[in-house]
Amino acid sequence: MGAVLGVTRAYFLGASVKEVGIGLAGYGTVGKGVVDVLRKNAAVIAQRTGVRLSVVHVGARRGASDLANTGITVSQDVFDVVKDPSVDICLELMGGKETAQGWIEAAFARGKPVVTANKALIAESGTALLDRARAAGVPLLFEAAVAGGIPILKALREGLSANQIHWVAGIINGTANYILSEMLAGRSFAEVLAEAQALGYAEADPTFDVEGIDAAHKLAILASMSFGTPLAFDDVFIEGISALQPDDLLYADNLGYRVKHLGLAHRTEAGVELRVHPTLVPKDSLLANVNGVMNAVMVHSDAVGSSLFYGPGAGGSATASSVIADVIEIARCSGLASEQLVPALGFQDQVSTPTVPVAETTSAYYLRFQVTDGPGVLAHITQLLGEANISIEAVIQKPVHSQTGLVSIIILTQPVKETIMDGVLSRVAAFPESGAPVVKLRVASLEGLN
Where is average pLDDT lowest: 65-69, 182-186, 399-403, 422-426? Predict the structure, then answer.
C-alpha cells in the first residue's frame, strides 16, 4: 500500500500543472471570498486537479485598494475583464440583470467560459443564456446560484443522475428561515426583521427574501435540474411570510409541526408543481430542525429515497467554494470546451411539462378561524368541511382574545385539493360571526408532500 501511495504522490508532484487565468466582475463579499479561498487553497487545488487557478483581473466599479501590489489588474470598467487575453474563465459576481447579462454575453463572444452566482438572471434568462453559450461552444455554470455553499446542483447533475427525482423541498432563503426561527419564541415579524437587518441577514429592502421571490428563483433552477424541464420562474406560485403571526407558529408547534418557508417542486402525473410558501412540517423531520440562517434541500428519488443537503446558504467563503468548484470543473476540461462537461441543467434536452396550477394541487391544511364567540359556530364550520368531504385531523379552540374579542378555532385537515378548500373558506368568510380572514397554511408530510 505504501509503495502505491508513493507512486501516486510522485505522479501528482511531477505532473505538469495547467495555468488558468480567472477574471472577476464584482468585488463584493463573494468576489473577495473567491480571491481569499484561491490564495489559501491554491496548493491543494493544484494537487487535486492539475490546474493552477490565478485571479489575474478584477472589475470593481468602486475599486479594490486591497489588491494593490498583488499583481492583479483592477479595472473600474468591468468589460475590460472579458477583453483581457490573460483571462481564460470569467466570473460574474456583480448581481443584477442587465449589466450582468451583457457582460456574460461579451465573454461568450470572445469564446470564454462563464461562472455566475446570479440566481435571478439564471432563473429568468437562463434559457437564452445557455443557448448563447452552446452557440459559442463554451460552458455556463452556476452552482453558487442555489443554496450558497451547498453543492446541491452538482449532486443533482452528477451524484443523483441515475435517479428519477420525485420531489425537492428546500429551505433556500436564510433570511426567511432566521425570521421564522425567532418568531417561534413569540416575537413579531416586524421586530425580528429589524433585527435581521441590523445583523446583516436582511437587505434594507427585504422584499425578495420575505415575499419568496429569491426562493422562487432558486426553486426554478432546482426543478429544471431535477426533472429536465425548462426553467419556469414565471410559473412558480409564491407566497411570503410577512403576514404570519407568532400565534400560528405556536399553535402549529402544539400540533406537532414547525412552520418553514419551503420551496417545493413535485413531479406528478398531471405535471410539475412549483410553489414557495409557508409550510407546516413535522417537528421530528430533518427540515423542521434547520434553524437560523442555514439552508437545506431534501431530495426524494427512486433509487436513493430521501437525502438531505445542509449548510450555509450565503457568505463569502461558502459561496466562493461553489463558484470555485465550477471553475475547477471547467478548467479540468482540455480546451475548456462545453461538450466535455455535464450539461449545465443536468439533461441533454429539456422536456416540456405542464405546470400544475396551485388551485389543482393537493395538501393537508392548517386553518385558523377568528370568529365572535357564540353557540354553533364550530359546528357550522365542521359541517361545511364535512359537506365538502374534507376530513378533520385535529381541532383546537382558544379562549376569547382579550384585545380583539374573537375566538380562534384551529383545524388541521386531511389532504384535499386547494380549489375545494378555497370554496369552503369563501363560504365561511360570509358568516356574520367571521371577525377576520381565515389563516390558511399548507402542511407537508415530506413523504408524499401532502
Answer: 399-403
| Identity of the residue numbered 174 | G
Residue 365 belongs to a domain with what CATH number? 3.30.70.260
Model confidence pLDDT, tens digit, residues 11-41 = 344 456 788 999 999 999 999 999 999 999 9
210 and 235 co-located in one domain: yes
Confidence of residue 233 (pLDDT cuts 50, 70, 90): very high
Residues in the chain: 450
Same domain, 62 and 134: yes
**Residues 417 and 271 placed together within one structural domain of the fold:** no
Which burial class, exposed, middle or buried, applies to 262 when counting CB atoms under 10 A from its CB (0-12, 13-18, 19+)? buried
Q: What residues are labeled active site?
A: 218
Q: What domain range is 298 assigned to?
A: 157-311
Shared domain for 283 and 323, answered yes or no, is no
Q: Report the C-alpha gap between 25 and 93 in whole angstroms.
A: 6
Gyration radius of the chain over CA positions: 25
Distance between CA atoms of residues 36 and 168, nearest Å:
33
282 burial level (CB within 10 Å; 0-12, 13-18, 19+):
middle
Q: Name which of 138, 90, 80 is nearest 118 in CA terms.
A: 90
pTM over 0.90: yes
Average pLDDT over residues 140-164: 96
Cα separation of 325 and 387, whole Å?
56
Extended beta strands in 207-256, E state: 237-238
- Terminal-to-terminal C-alpha distance of the chain: 52
Tell me the average pLDDT across 67-92.
Answer: 95
Query: 296 with 286: CB under 8 angstroms?
Result: yes
Backbone angles phi, psi at 426, to 5 degrees: -65, -35
Residue 11's pLDDT is 35
